[in-house]
Amino acid sequence: MPINPAHTDQATRAQAGAYLQISSLSKSFGRFKALDQVSFEIARGEFVCLLGPSGCGKTTLLRCIAGLEVQSAGSVIQNGHDISALPPSGRDFGIVFQSYALFPNLTGTQNIAFGMQNQRPLPAGIDARVAELMQLVGLDGHGDKYPAQLSGGQQQRVALARALATSPGLLLLDEPLSALDAKVRVRLRQEIRSLQRRLGITTIMVTHDQEEAQAMADRIVVMNEGRVEQMGSPGDIYTRPASAFVADFIGVMNFVPGRVQGPAGVQCASMLLACAAGAHPVGSAVRCGFRPEDVTRVAGPASDAGLLARLLSVEPLGPFVRLHCEVPALGVTPIKVDMRRSSFAEQPLEPGQALTLRIDPAAVHLFPEGDRA
């Protein structure tokens, strides 16, 4: 029975065992190494996002899993079977490409049926299966339309139904929402996630959109320069980034250089910043990272509880307002501070105004000085 991804955790994954294992996977194009010793496991029924900037190797990894690229080294194990040397036709997956790759001369129903019609032996009940899928993805009444007559969102649904038509064990999504406008993207990512949960199908999605990954994934694989920087739940990735790159790529992060003075403080310019030094030895150079929402405005003058700042600019961002502040004691400019719009309306600020800030010590992350975002 498929695992409900909504309740997947580390204990459940360990008990269920890995459905997909990527082991020391590498891929080179000439002298360029697109993938460098990539390893991780995915449990049956999980929704995993491969996230990273352009050129980080996430699409190459997806194509190696599908057999559309041949890895230079390493292996891919699916459901206990080594599929590393199998062609795409010998692997158990459905795929939705960024461009959808629909046949323009076939209707929606014909596009969905295409994969099943090429199976041997020919499965029974193709028409009933197509009708079931059309209803599943919300396309009743649109089956006789050609791709050019469908909206982008409808084309995406056809491509998704076609990928699911053969009831694959693995669903691969290569930036399926990137060509759609913002509102349609939000609606369809909710629909895809809901559908994936209902079907319990193991899913891997490539995206460069951090919000999309955090909204859809059980776990995120953050990639950079062909390597896995961190794999974890969206909450873990955001609140406990393993590197400065992850901290900067997921959300917004302020970085301040400093030197560890003791187990509970880092000297940053003229200020001793309260935070846990962890395993960083006394005297080591570090980068202190803290998010804009973990900086608050406090009443009264600068003291042990706060530091003096000067407002440089105000950036309205929907439900919150981002303040860009000069903080001489930290020696860097600007520091970003997020306030709820309602709080800002109650205490309006103007550029040039002095204010006192407090950084939550528990929210400060330390990274080695050489660990660059």
Task: Describe the fold and architecture.
With 373 residues, this protein is an alpha+beta fold. The chain contains ten helices and 20 strands. The strands form four sheets. The chain has a six-stranded mixed beta sheet with strand order 6-7-8-3-9-10, with helices on both faces. Strand 9 and strand 10 (227-232) form a beta hairpin. It is elongated, with a radius of gyration of 25 Å. The protein starts with 9 loop residues before the first helix and ends in a 5-residue tail after the last strand. Mean pLDDT is 90; it is low at 1-15.
Q: Hey, roughly how much beta strand do the residues contain?
A: 25-35%
Structural class: alpha+beta
Using only C-alpha atoms, the radius of gyration works out to 25 Å
Helix fraction bin: 10-25%
* Uncertain stretches of 5 or more adjacent residues: 1-15
The largest sheet is: 6 strands, mixed
**What overall form do the CA principal axes indicate?**
elongated
Quick check: average pLDDT?
90
How many DSSP H or I helices?
A: 10
What is the terminal-to-terminal distance? 41 Å
What oligomeric state do the depicted chains represent? Answer: single chain
